[in-house]
Write a structure and sequence with these properties.
By secondary structure, the protein is of the alpha+beta class. It folds into two domains: about 110 residues, 3-Layer(aba) Sandwich (NADH Oxidase), CATH 3.40.109; about 170 residues, NADH Oxidase. About 35% of the residues lie in helices and about 15% in strands. The chain has eleven helices and ten strands. A four-stranded antiparallel β-sheet has the order 1-2-4-3, with helices on one face. β1 and β2 form a beta hairpin. It is globular and about 55 Å long. The structure holds flavin mononucleotide.
Amino acid sequence: MNDAPGPELTAEERELLLRAAIRAPSMHNTQPWRFAFRDRTVEVYRDIDRELAAEDPDGRLAMLGVGAAVLNLRVAAATLALSTTTVLLPDPGRPTLTVRLTLGTGGGEGTELAGLFPSIPSRRTNRHPYAERAIAPAVRAELAQAAAAEGARLYWANEDQVRWLQHLAGDADRFEEQDLHRIVERGAWVGGDRDRDGVPSASLGPRPAELSSPVRDLAVDPADRARSTARFEDHPQLAVLATAEDGPRSWLVAGQALQRVLLVATRNGLAASLLNQLVEHQPFRELLYAPSAGPTAPQAVLRLGHGRAVAATPRRPAEAFVLRDNETP
Ligand SMILES: Cc1cc2nc3c(=O)[nH]c(=O)nc-3n(C[C@H](O)[C@H](O)[C@H](O)COP(=O)(O)O)c2cc1C
């Protein structure tokens, strides 16, 4: 929806949009995005310097994170009763410019998105064991609907598929442990006390007691690897988020869908974590599942359920993300 251009955004509106955007999840909390506010547009850029060359050579995970930040911007705009026109990859000549959002005055994407705003600060990745309690069918349907609203598909795994996914995740863990480049790179982002970016030791959750587990153990540091263990739920509730096609545009679609699913989950009191080692390596990605119809490009594997409260991960100061007029990313 694009309508009357309206006056320039106020400082308060910009601030609200920016603070919402940077609460988005990103792989290893790299926060690989920058924002330029010009008149009534927000341009969203990839921050190539913060991308993971070894773990994410194609920039796919970074683009999912950018998509998640864009969804947060749309939710924040909706709460300000601003409409948004979102153009993905608006300028082929500027590959780091990923999304251009134009803000109008016409009421926004409605109460549906605005209702997710309170969940932005309370959403977090929860790597602790979850209760053995099934997610209500109506909530499962609502989560699938959230993905569909963004042009993606959420496939809930049945019991056999859950076992298969867990088994595959264990194999993927062992596969990537052999890759020194990945491990060294991960060590720079995961572990320790952190007050700006990365995954602090305190957010790793307990070490899974079993080889085949529904959480990804990101620990690299010897002290983190020796942390105490816990038994995770016997019946994890896993879902695969997929898009019809693959490539940068689809990654941005998937990121927005992922974040919409996560915010709807948060609003319903659910915890979530990701088992993305399954989609990071092509051989595993291909083995993931083969639906006979519908979107077939898996972009994320989610674990959802009822979990204990966990602390938020840090973000850099909001100003660090703003591109000044004379800056070119
Ligand atoms: C594309 C993407 C992939 C991710 N993959 C994983 C993963 O495989 N395992 C995991 O534990 N967390 C994963 N995360 C979660 C990030 O580590 C998390 O978002 C980040 O540390 C910030 O913390 P927060 O989500 O609590 O705000 C992923 C996040 C994104 C956006």
